[in-house]
Amino acid sequence: MNTQAIRDKFASLYGEAGTLYTSPGRINLIGEHTDYNGAFVFPGAIDKAMVAEIRPNGTDRVRAFALDLGESAEFGLKEEDAPSQSWARYIFGVCREIQKRGGKIAGFDTVFAGDVPLGAGMSSSAALESTFAFALDDLFSLGLSKWDMAKIGQATEHNYCGVKCGIMDQFASVFGKAGKLLRLDCKSFEYEEHPFDPKGYCLLLVDSCVKHELASSAYNKRRESCENVVAALAKRYPEIKFLRDASFAQLEEVKNEVSEEDYKRAAYVIGEVERVLAVCEALGKGDYQTVGEKMYETHHGMSKLYEVSCEELDFLNDLAREFGVTGSRVMGGGFGGCTINLLKEELHDSFIAEVKKRYEAKYGIQPKFYDVVISDGARRL
């Protein structure tokens, strides 16, 4: 990310220089739709990030400029001062959530930009929230913990942006470490770092450039399916609070008490919980073949059991398998977006060429490609 353009714009708008802060987007290697089931996710921060230059301005107002959009916003710090632009609401929300927790902040000037691709499922919004949570903590000596920052970002989404997201995106953006994937337990909030340094392999995201409209209503429906199965299981096993607590054997016992659809959804989740743990173990041994197999299994489950894939993503997944890519799956909520691919470095260029040719021939659109490297989380530059 070239910071000079940010510096130049800041100088032209506000004069004296401020301090630069950054926070990254994220990938999730495996563990999809597991967060709200109290299970594990396995994200890492990436080398694509938001960067903001910030300086307190001695007033009670925020003046912000979004360089990528060429738009400015100005707003106060009281609840009724909410700005109209959606991008500005992320910054405003972070300010308000800090204040709700007793943090004393004042007005500031900022210019920000980023190279986290929008709409590709790499959490540009979490990167933006984490940048400002980290920066305001540093500038105003708030004494926030990293967990506070992640929760401030999540609460911003819930209360100011209308998205009832889990904690994974903000967690990865704040806690990320170069060369480490983070296995987060979404029930206890304990996490472990796992080295990820795949010699001879690389991570490539292929953006299908489609987004099907189903996403939000379908997401809620799947949460409901999981809750229905938990309710049926809890009648026999009161200790089961989340699908994460259940085994396949227990699911079989209630098969006739839940709908076929709910059963399929639960079977995917219970399988995914096991796959995350298997991938962690395989990584510890440097066994990327097993990691890749588990990624393909996840794609199959998301496509056939959880039914959150789509024709284009299935096509990209089939193509990856045919081409000898080690592992590939849909990443994120589904219904469009990216596949994440683990492949040998020597296949990288020829795989991209093949996907471009075949995908465009079939769908008439060019997919996009993003190489990602596991990198550090929120920090001052």
Automatic annotation (TrEMBL):
Protein name: Galactokinase
Limits of the GHMP kinase N-terminal domain: 90-177
Organism this protein belongs to: Porphyromonas somerae
Domain Galactokinase N-terminal: 9-56
GO biological process: galactose metabolic process
SUPFAM superfamilies per record: GHMP Kinase, C-terminal domain, Ribosomal protein S5 domain 2-like
Annotated PROSITE patterns: GALACTOKINASE, GHMP_KINASES_ATP
InterPro entries: Galactokinase, Galactokinase_CS, GalKase_N, GHMP_kinase_C_dom, GHMP_kinase_C_sf, GHMP_kinase_N_dom, GHMP_knse_ATP-bd_CS, Mevalonate/galactokinase
Domain GHMP kinase C-terminal: start-end pairs: 281-360
Family the UniProt entry places it in: Belongs to the GHMP kinase family. GalK subfamily.
GO CC annotations on file: cytosol
Keywords: ATP-binding, Carbohydrate metabolism, Cytoplasm, Galactose metabolism, Kinase, Magnesium, Metal-binding, Nucleotide-binding, Transferase
One annotated GO molecular function: metal ion binding
Enzyme Commission number, as recorded: 2.7.1.6
